[in-house]
Design a protein that fits this description.
The protein is α+β, with helices and mostly antiparallel strands. The protein is about 55% helix and about 20% strand. The strands form four sheets. It has a five-stranded antiparallel sheet with strand order 2-1-5-4-3, sandwiched between helices. A five-stranded antiparallel sheet has the order 7-6-10-9-8. Strand 1 and strand 2 (about 125) form a beta hairpin. It is flat, with a radius of gyration of 39 Å.
């Protein structure tokens, strides 16, 4: 084989040529990017101000809208109404404590509320922290006027500069509205606006100036000298326009945006010092040049001190690994081969030898792991099938006892036709519960539920009604057998049967295409559950998922001992987790005296889709 002549150059010269080319290219790209960055940032300042200021204005508007809702809620609550309309409220400590509790609950609705005060027409006063002296000037100013929810100024409440909002408190339900007093809401305006600025400007690209004023051009928040400059600068005709504001005392030019909140007569100004942009550009440009210099230095050190045969050997190893990743079994058997040239590295040679030994051990270990996982999978599958079969077999014996007792009563009265219907339905339920398939369509499960409800209707007569609400595509969805009947039974036994009035049961299902599951719900208008019972049941559902021992009978006995009234729910929940995992636990909502809603979710699959897959 003829050898080609190789042009030999000193390795240092080759590296020098590459390094010079790299430096020239990197410097050119850096200069171009810096110029482009200056242009982009100049355009960005205006658009950024628009985005920032509009978001701040939106947040402020939403905040004051929420304060209006809070004022309405508090002013027209029964506690405030009763306190102000009561003639002997000054001597009623209990009424004052109820009012105090109402104000404290309202205070917790928003972190920027500093104080809430109620000022009665007869001078009666109650607040969380402020004094009557702080609110009296506002009350006197509003006493003889008719006003809606409005802003009345600023004052110090417990050492905090607060923006005061007022809401008239009038009587309700008397046929003639009469003012009872005034509700005052003190907002920590410094905390509200400064916190909004911090949240929206977390990257600190620039520091905006915020001014907030009322219709009387009284400054609520911000720098007074800057506000005087803004007042002396003509504002644009449209809020969508930006304009420049030049400070009188300093050579500073601001880009400004103005927003008006017409309902309360408030104005919000957002200003950005243009010199901040120049400073940011200089800082970032300097950082870019320093980073480029550091990278060039690292490249120089890398090229200078690394040995080329070392790189070539690593490339050979990488190519061999890629060949293995591509599924080349012959390469594994052959092993990695190295060609380092005339002078090689002992470390590289050791790496290749160790890599070949690793391949041999990995092959042996893969066979061992595969055999172990195969046995573990078969064992786990058998255990899951056994546990599911056990849980499915736990049918409430009380239902059978009550049904047989009812049949005896029908027989005593000669009700042959009803006996035939009830025994037929009972036979259908038990035949269905023991047949082979674990997964059935919702249509099949619903037929058994209807048979069960027919028996219960015979037993309870007109104590409850039944309503069904299923989407068309729900009936073909595959679900685990006997998961709806125990939940319906729970609704009757623990919901409707304990109620002294007639009730109803709603059974329905609907598909959620976005998340790929079918939701099935059972709602009853029975006695419901108190909050502590609901919390206990939810805790039992979570515990049944995470505290399993692997012994289905032991786990079921433990659940029965802890929450006997809900064993059917816990049984169904355990089966859902075994079939689909911990993300498919039951969802339960209940309110005492209203009713209970239980929802289960299953992945939407049909027999046709399973055959296709």
């Amino acid at each position: 084989m003829k050898k080609h002549k190789t042009i030999l150059l000193p390795l240092g010269r080759q590296f020098s040529i590459i390094l010079v080319l790299f430096i020239v290219c990197t410097a050119g790209i850096t200069l171009y990017n810096t110029q482009d960055y200056v242009r982009v940032q100049t355009d960005f300042l205006s658009s950024s101000l628009d985005s920032y200021s509009s978001q701040l204005a939106k947040n402020t508007q939403e905040a004051y809208d929420s304060y209006e809702n809070i004022c309405y809620s508090a002013a027209y609550s029964s506690v405030v109404q009763d306190f102000l309309s009561s003639k002997n409220r000054q001597s009623s400590y209990e009424a004052y404590q109820e009012l105090r509790t109402q104000l404290e609950n309202t205070f917790l609705l928003n972190p920027y509320i500093s104080d809430i005060a109620v000022y009665g027409q007869d001078g009666t006063f109650a607040s969380l922290g402020g004094s009557a002296f702080s609110y009296k000037p506002f009350a006197d100013k509003l006493e003889e006027t008719s006003f809606p929810y409005c802003t009345v100024g600023t004052t110090l409440i417990n050492g905090t500069n607060c923006h005061i909002l007022a809401m008239p408190i009038c009587t309700l339900g008397t046929g003639q509205s009469q003012r009872l007093g005034i509700l005052f809401l003190a907002i920590d305006i410094n905390h509200l606006l400064s916190n909004s600025m911090t949240n929206m400007n977390s990257q600190k690209l620039y520091e905006p100036e915020i001014l907030f004023a009322n219709a009387q051009q009284e400054l609520i928040y911000g720098t007074k000298s800057l506000y005087r400059t803004v007042l002396n600068t003509p504002a644009p005709q449209s809020e969508t326009d930006t304009y420049e504001v030049k400070a009188n005392s300093t050579p500073v030019t601001y880009i400004a945006k103005c927003y008006s909140f017409r309902k309360l007569g408030l104005s919000l100004y957002v200003l950005v010092d243009k010199s901040q942009l120049t400073s940011q550009i200089q800082t970032i440009s300097l950082r870019q040049f320093l980073a480029t210099g550091a990278i060039l230095l690292l490249v120089f050190l890398f090229v200078t001190f690394l040995y080329k045969p070392f790189l070539d050997s690593l490339k050979q190893l990488i190519d061999f690994m890629k060949s293995i990743s591509a599924g080349n079994r012959k390469a594994i058997k052959k092993g990695a081969q190295i060609h380092q040239g005339l002078i090689g590295s002992t470390e590289i040679n050791d790496i290749f030898n160790a890599f070949n030994e690793m391949l041999i051990k990995t092959e042996e270990l893969n066979h061992t792991i595969f055999d172990s996982y195969t046995r573990m999978y078969e064992l786990e599958a058998n255990n899951r099938k056994t546990e599911i079969a056990f849980l499915r077999s736990q049918i409430n014996p009380h239902f059978l006892y009550n049904t047989l007792t009812m049949i005896c009563g029908m027989a005593a009265e000669g009700m042959t036709d009803k006996i035939i219907l009830v025994t037929g339905a009972l036979s259908q339920i038990f035949r269905y519960s023991i047949k082979g398939n674990d997964m059935v369509s919702l249509r099949e499960e619903l037929e058994i539920v209807k048979s069960y409800l027919m028996i219960q209707k015979e037993r309870f007569a007109d104590r409850f009604t039944i309503e069904y609400n299923f989407s068309d595509d729900a009936y073909d969805c595959l679900i685990p057998k006997m998961v709806i009947q125990p939940l319906v039974e729970n609704a009757i036994v623990h919901g409707l049967e304990k109620s002294l009035k007639p009730g109803s049961i709603l059974i329905g299902a609907g598909r959620n295409p976005r998340h790929g599951y079918l939701a099935i719900w059972i709602f009853d208008t029975g006695v419901g559950m108190p909050p502590e019972k609901l919390q206990e049941l939810r805790h039992s559902i979570a515990a049944s998922v995470h505290d399993k021992t692997g012994d289905a009978s032991a786990d079921l006995a433990k659940m029965d001992a802890q929450n006997h009234d809900s064993i059917g729910i816990l049984n169904v929940n355990s089966r859902m987790v075994l079939y689909y995992g911990a993300d498919y636990t039951l969802i339960i909502d209940s309110e005492e005296g209203v009713g209970t809603n239980i929802q289960l979710r299953v992945p939407y699959q049909t027999s046709d889709s399973l055959q296709i897959s």
